């Protein structure tokens, strides 16, 4: 009864903490943005690397480490609370910019991305879970849209800023000083102002009502960690469909991270234009999520996910066919739009199906699969690019995205009962 009186679910009731967590997630995204434009150019211009597969090792290292960290973020946040996991995640970020500034060889860059993967897995997963805790069931799509818009909007802005700094002052150290500032600010905000949200999840669990169609009756509150992993990965149609779509979505992001700057450089574009092209993708992605997350609360999740994956496939075809700034700009904008349809909607679907008691672990398992896409995309892109060229790697990603869209359309069921106007009042 005390919890009922002191805690409330909903975006309006928790606006201050929710806004703070949105700001912190923007700083999380900025840690990735500081290096996306710069590191591929650092690999070729400073360290003299030529093999695409070898250059992409830093993306693979980041993706694998982040995937593993996601699992522990979910498990530890359910077991020990959300705030301690968030703080530990930011401690791992401290050495990253310094290692990139002082790196004498490429192994330092790979090691820095291992630490960055741990930082991203612990902090981003935790802010996702905390926002779902706060808002309750009615506005999950909107909450995830705001969360992911902040994160990937910051990726775009910081990518553009890093590209500008690199063009004006060189590839090192200027772009990475931004990451030092982000880390210091995030540690202060997380340590002093963030409050624990696990009690909100317990309140949500106490009010949990089974679906009238019985779809989730087998997903009761006392599943083991192994059962949660199996349901989210393979067995439960909506959860496992979300996991595979998330993997392919981040396959595209991982491939773009390592490959797009090199592809754009083949046309002789200056660093500033390359930075602008790379920023367009997460910028449209970030801003678009402000609308698509809330839209999924109104029309449901499944169609947005399947159409979004198909849109990504079409965008990659445009990029593969292109050879100049104008066409590539169109392709990256379409790719961002498709990703915006998918990204917050997948997280909202996980929140729809997972019981509040094991929601953190389900989000963690989903994000394991999703962020393995970074590594798969980097390695697929590197291997195909080495064997057949950069454009062939983009065609391969387009084909995989089309298959993913079809799989969602066939296997996934609708997880959300759309809101009416009366529901939102």
Kindly describe this structure:
Helix 8 (106-135) runs antiparallel to helix 9 (140-169). This protein has 425 residues and is mainly α. The chain is 81% helix and 0% strand. 58% of the residues are buried. The protein contains 19 helices and no strands. It is globular. The model is unreliable at 1-5 and 420-425 (pLDDT under 50). It has one domain (11-199, 228-420): Up-down Bundle (Growth Hormone, Chain: A). The chain has helices at residues 2-6, 15-36, 39-45, 52-55, 57-80, 82-91, 95-102, 106-135, 140-169, 174-193, 198-206, 225-235, 237-265, 271-299, 302-321, 325-353, 359-388, 390-411, 421-424. The longest helix has 30 residues, at 106-135.
How would you concisely characterize the structure shown here?
One of its GO terms (molecular function) is transmembrane transporter activity. Residues 14-416 form the Major facilitator superfamily (MFS) profile domain. By secondary structure, the protein is mainly α.
């Amino acid at each position: 009864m005390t919890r009922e009186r002191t805690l409330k679910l909903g975006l309006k009731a928790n606006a201050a903490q929710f806004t703070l967590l949105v700001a912190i997630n923007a700083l999380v995204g900025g840690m990735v943005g500081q290096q996306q434009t710069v590191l591929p150019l650092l690999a070729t211009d400073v360290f003299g690397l030529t093999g695409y597969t070898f250059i992409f090792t830093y993306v693979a290292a980041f993706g694998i480490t982040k995937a593993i960290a996601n699992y522990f973020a979910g498990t530890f946040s359910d077991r020990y609370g959300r705030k301690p996991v968030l703080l530990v995640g930011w401690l791992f970020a401290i050495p990253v910019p310094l290692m990139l500034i002082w790196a004498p060889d490429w192994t330092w860059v790979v090691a820095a991305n291992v630490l960055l993967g741990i930082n991203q897995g612990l902090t981003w997963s935790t802010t996702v879970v905390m926002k779902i805790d706060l808002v309750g069931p009615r506005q999950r799509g909107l909450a995830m849209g705001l969360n992911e818009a902040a994160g990937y909007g910051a990726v775009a802005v910081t990518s553009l800023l890093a590209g500008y700094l690199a063009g004006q002052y060189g590839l090192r150290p200027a772009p990475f000083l931004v990451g030092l500032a982000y880390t210091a600010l995030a540690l202060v905000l997380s340590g002093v102002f963030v409050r624990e949200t696990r009690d909100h999840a317990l309140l949500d669990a106490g009010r949990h009502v089974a679906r009238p169609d019985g779809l989730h009756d087998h997903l009761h509150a006392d599943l083991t960690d192994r059962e949660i992993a199996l349901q989210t990965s393979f067995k439960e149609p909506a959860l496992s469909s979300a996991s595979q779509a998330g993997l392919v979505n981040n396959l595209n992001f991982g491939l773009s991270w390592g490959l797009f700057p090199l592809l754009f450089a083949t046309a002789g574009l200056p660093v500033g234009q390359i930075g602008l092209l790379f920023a367009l993708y997460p910028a449209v992605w970030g801003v678009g999520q402000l609308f698509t997350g809330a839209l999924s609360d109104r029309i449901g999740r499944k169609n947005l996910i399947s159409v979004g994956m198909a849109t990504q496939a079409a965008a990659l075809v445009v990029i593969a066919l292109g050879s100049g700034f104008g066409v590539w700009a169109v392709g990256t904008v379409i790719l961002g739009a498709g990703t915006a349809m998918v990204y917050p909607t997948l997280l909202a679907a996980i929140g729809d199906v997972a019981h509040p008691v094991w929601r953190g672990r389900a989000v963690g398992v989903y994000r394991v699969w999703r962020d393995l896409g970074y590594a798969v995309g980097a390695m697929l892109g590197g291997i195909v690019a080495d064997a057949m060229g950069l454009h062939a790697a983009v065609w391969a990603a387009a084909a995989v995205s089309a298959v993913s869209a079809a799989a969602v359309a066939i296997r996934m069921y609708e997880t959300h009962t759309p809101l009416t106007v009366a529901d939102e009042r």
